[in-house]
Amino acid sequence: MATAIHPSVGRAPLLDDTTAALAAYLGPRVVEVRSGERGAGSGVIWGSDGLIVTNAHVVRAPNMEVVLADGATLPATVAARDDAHDLAALRVAATGLPTAALGDSDSLRVGQVVLAMGNPLGLTRALTMGIVHALGTGDRGRWIQADIRLAPGNSGGPLVDAEGKVIGINSMIAGGLALAVPSSLVTRFLAGDTRPAYLGVRVQGVRLPGAEGTQCLLVLETIDGGAAARGGLLPGDLLLTAGRTTLHDPRDLPSTLRDLMPGTPLPLTILRAGLRREITIVLGESPTDAG
Fold it and tell me: How far apart are alpha carbons 291 and 288 in whole angstroms?
């Protein structure tokens, strides 16, 4: 599905020549996605057989067009769509297309250099560079926040690491920073598996003892047979963090679980009987929308 990266990419410091080589490598793998008169966005060639990944909000009409780097314009059909995660997959009748190399979004670190390519404001295959600003969850699920300048038309284009590997799909601008859907979630979307994982707890927000104004989550109940009960979480435990997310509000927990797969090990930091502990719970399948 993904090809090896260009030999000139990722083997030297990100100086002028290397950045230019990376732009040259990415260019043929980034497309323009058109929705008739309703505007244009960007997309990434994910499969050599004509699979294109973009944002759901870019797909605004039943009849789409994809413009390749060589100027060829191809009609596209919608193969899959997930509005909740702002992802869409398009199909074009083409073979032998150059595909993007897939990176590991789960291994990203704050401060890591990233680049974005897209078609902003009528430009084609424009490149911008910055760093990972933050990693976390929110009402729209997991995201990568990058200190990168985006503009209308960048949506659906790739966010890549310094080796040119796709680690996200640029989705929107929030507070002047780019928000991108992690590549790990794109992989799940294409496999047709975006079921939320299940922890099996009932919680409420409480003030953390000895920390004025700081909230955490009190475990009120663990559901029989659920992952939390199997993993040793107990009523009365205070949940401080889940993975990379600090838990201040009961809504933080389902937001964290939303884009994790059943079977994923989830590290938790808890406070039990005044002692801080680190435990890991293997998440189960979600029977409901509960945490």
Answer: 8
Strand-pair partners of 280: 267
Going by their DSSP bridges, the two strands 284-285 and 197-198 should be labelled as antiparallel
Residues catalogued as catalytic:
57, 86, 155
Task: Give the number of other CB atoms < 10 A from CB of residue 147.
Answer: 15
Q: Which of 18, 269, 34 is nearest to 160 (CA)?
A: 18
Alpha helices in the chain (DSSP H): 16-26, 183-190, 227-231, 252-257
pLDDT in tens, 87-102: 999 999 999 999 999 9
Residues 175-198 pLDDT 10s: 889 999 999 899 989 988 767 788
**At 255, is the secondary structure helix, strand, or coil?**
helix
Residue type, 105: S
The half-sphere exposure of 200 on its side-chain side, counting CA atoms within 13 A, is 21
Distance CA 51, CA 83 (A): 18
pLDDT digits (tens, 9 = 90+) for 35-57: 876 568 999 999 999 999 999 99
Question: Using CA atoms, how far apart are residues 142 and 182, in angstroms rounded to an integer?
Answer: 7
Task: Give the separation between CA 172 and CA 240, rounded to whole angstroms.
Answer: 29
- pLDDT score of 289 more than 50: no
Spatial contact of 219 and 239, defined as CB atoms under 8 Å apart? yes
Q: Could you give the CA distance from residue 187 to residue 56 in angstroms, rounded to a whole number?
A: 15
How far, in Å, CA of 255 to CA of 230, rounded? 22
- Evaluated on CA atoms 252, 88, 53, 129, the torsion sign reads negative
